[in-house]
Amino acid sequence: MAPTKRSLSLFLWLALISTSSSDYTPNSILCDDIPAICEKNGLPYESNNETICGSLDRYLNPAVCNCGHKCMGSIGEGKSCSTSSVMMFPEEVCGNQLECISSETSGKNAKCTPNTAHECIFLAVEYDAAMEEGTVGPGQYRPNCNDDGSYAGRQCSPGSSCYCVDKGNTRLFGEASVTEFDGMDCECAIYWSDTQSRGLTEGLRCLVNGNFDPLFCVDGLCYCYDHEKGSIDGPYSDTGITDMPCYDSSVHNPNYTNICSQAQIDWDNRADNRTIIVDQHRRPDCDHSGYYAPVQITGPYAYCVDPYGDLIENFTAPLYSADEMTCNCARRRYFMEKSGLGASKPKCCSNGEYFPYQKRGLQAYCVDNNGNQRGNATPITDLESLVETCTYTAPCPEDIPFALF
Predict the structure, then answer these.
(1) Could you tell me where the beta strands, DSSP code E, fall in 270-344?
(2) Are the C-beta atoms of residues 347 and 315 closer than 8 Å to each other?
(3) 178-230, pLDDT tens digit by residue?
(4) pLDDT digits 0-9 by tens, 234-282
């Protein structure tokens, strides 16, 4: 969904008041007057304040703009640690995705260990063990976990595409070819998941891959937004939008409104209050980038489309089954074909969902709704054994003949 004037104005206002007070007026919404901000908050300021800690891979920023930050050392896996400390901030803590765990009730002899009570960590440890044993299947992937053991926003399936999830591994908006994973963070997809969970419907615009769109405009003024740095550059006049440093002609349009959002505007403007429209074409469904959502409806059919609204191959289904469609498999085929990985595209049902079983090379395996391997792989000569075991919540609406493999 494209941001509205009210939502962006509110965003700018909130950013402005976040560091303002009756006795301190910031130069801008940025952390560009750190000494004054630190002084106002009663925190020490050092001229070499940074958001990283050199060779130490753990750090703490207890206040805004890195005032009074403290660096801490990182303890490696299997090393001794302490489950308690008399210090407010210890000198060392367990490294990323590790917790100080003891097998004794007294807490003694604790070591930094991956906590497999977290599903993501458990699956990552399981994957690493299989990798060491040489038994990793062709469709298995190592989950990407946050430091706290929850699922990271970006997950990538082997040799195909990356997609966005929430901390519980529920699929969100946002996908791209696996070849583009370095530039994909899914922060905007996560932002929208949180926004909608609070009953809100307006907010910032995303890119198709689930990142924040660095370009946004409101009331004739446009800005470049760097989410990683938390900085905003502008304003620029919207008449010069194509000259802005964050404008990308492969993503943005000279009038700012993206293709699906514009189609919604055109659909809404087809009639005035005196006209009743009878049309088989429903109002387009857009995602948070302003491009087309994967599932669209026309007449009695639902169908899978690419971000530009074009039908992907011939993936369609009756309208009554639209609520069960995600088009995850169809969209993956689209992104893989676009990035030159088309030779190994997954097999899809006629409605754009994954076949319950897939093959790669001489092996076949069951998959989940995201196309990732479930269970062990089997030789393709034993493919028939997978028919009854490979089921999931959205099976193919048609019988699946072995000939398709």
Answers:
(1) 295-298, 301-305, 311-318
(2) no
(3) 999 999 999 999 999 999 988 888 888 999 999 999 998 888 899 998 877 77
(4) 899 989 999 999 999 999 999 999 999 999 999 988 865 555 555 567 8
**What integer is the mean pLDDT of 316-344?**
93
The H or E element that residue 53 is part of is none
> Which domain range does residue 341 map to?
278-404
CB crowding 367-402: b at 16 or more within 10 Å, else e: bbebbbbbeebbebeebeebeeebeeebeeeeebee
Token digits of residue 40: 């106002």
| pLDDT of 62 above 80 | no
Cβ(366)–Cβ(377) below 8 Å = no
C-alpha 353, offset from chain centre: 20
Torsion of CA 122, 123, 128, 132, to 10 degrees: 100
Q: 240 lies in a domain? A: no
Residue 272 lies in a domain: no
* Residue 154 forms part of a structural domain: no
55 within domain boundaries? yes
Beta pairing class for 70-75 and 92-94 = parallel
**How much is the pTM?**
0.80
| Strands laid side by side in the 301-305 sheet | 295-298, 301-305, 311-318
| Residue where a domain terminates, one of 70, 95, 120 | 95
Sign of the Cα pseudo-torsion (346, 347, 349, 350, in order): positive
